[in-house]
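Box S1 | Example of a co-folding query
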Amino acid sequence: MLVNASLLQQHNESLLATHQLKLAANKAELENAEKVIGLLSDFQVAIPSWALGTGGTRFGRFSGGGEPRDLEEKMADVALLHQLNRSSGAISLHIPWDIPGNPEKVRTLAEQYGLRFDAVNSNTFQDQPGQKLSYKFGSLQHVDKAVRQQAIEHNIEVIKHGVELGSESLTVWLSDGSCFPGQLNFRKAFQRTLEGLQEIYAALPADWKMFVEYKAFEPNFYSMTVGDWGQSLLYAQKLGPKAFTLVDLGHHLPNANIEQIVSLLLMEGKLGGFHFNDSKYGDDDLTVGSINPYQLFLIFNELVEGMNARGMNHARDLGWMIDASHNVKDPLEDLLQSVEAIKIAYAQALLVDADALNAAQEMNDVVQCQEILQNAYRTDVRTLVAEASLRSGGALQPLQVYREAKVRKHLIRERGEKTVATGL
Ligand code: PSV
Ligand code: MN
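Box S1 (continued) | Returned holo structure for alpha-D-psicofuranose
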């Protein structure tokens, strides 16, 4: 469902006077306010098709009502988010959770909603009903060539689905690894994985990218065959110019300096994409910016600095995606919060005085360096984010409209209380 246009308009009108006062104050204080609003309007973050239903843990899942029952309903949910914030104009599909049965129909629907298809994601971390060989002991790393072949073929199949929908990248996340010392020969596991990735890489269309996503642990708890950015970069370098590292914020060991990783990957031209989420302990699923917004800002600061250094287009040259799971929140509300947090961190990073920071760094003026960063971080940019949304036809306060329109109640009425979306 989409929100009634007059309700959206009423909402914006009711907040407009206060909004304009705040905007005038922002513009008086920030000389690049207009530029920030323009960049925010261009910025789009893909919504993962697997995050539109309620998530769970191995201990249980508490289903929310009105979850999307198929891909079409998932697209309708993303379209609603995009209507409200104008920054969720893309969807990232996970295969086989969301196989587009009728690609032509799905593509037409996406066009109607103004959505595009971002990276397609393969899945060799679960066994599917009727699947011939098991991934219990890994997929591309497996000792049995037939299992490796099955995983390669699956990835090639995923590329084909992506081509039909107009995607331009494949994200490969492997759960491969080992649970106990001695279980695996690390070198053999690496080599086999590399050979598999090479075959998949060879099947990529000319204008496609391959993202190699790393994760420190889970589901394997002793070693992961793509366990950190070093291993991912190694694969990406060996594969070739179409292969890149994908950084998922929740996939690091505690206290890892993710901003430094981002900076160096950009320097090497090997940062491809992002999965946004937040985490407190060892999870990769919490709402973006809910635990450590300063870290998110520092990451965006390196992203902006590094992309500018390479003359990259902020909105288009990297794959921006959310990857989270919502166990206790309405997924759509959680996603609105996540996109908002991303835009806030991006806007704050755009406020960093790069020349002054560079000068302070060259003078070893540590105190001034911190002042410059924190001055940007402590600026309230929410009005700039709201203005970008308003100018693009969205809501000043997307979450508020979502609640005013009682979207979840309508979705429950339409889809039922007990629906379960595909995903984890
Ligand atoms: C693995 O934890 C991961 O981050 C990968 O991106 C998967 O595709 C996704 O989560 C599955 O939920
Ligand atoms: Mn991920």
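The two ends are 24 Å apart (CA to CA). The chain has a mean pLDDT of 97.
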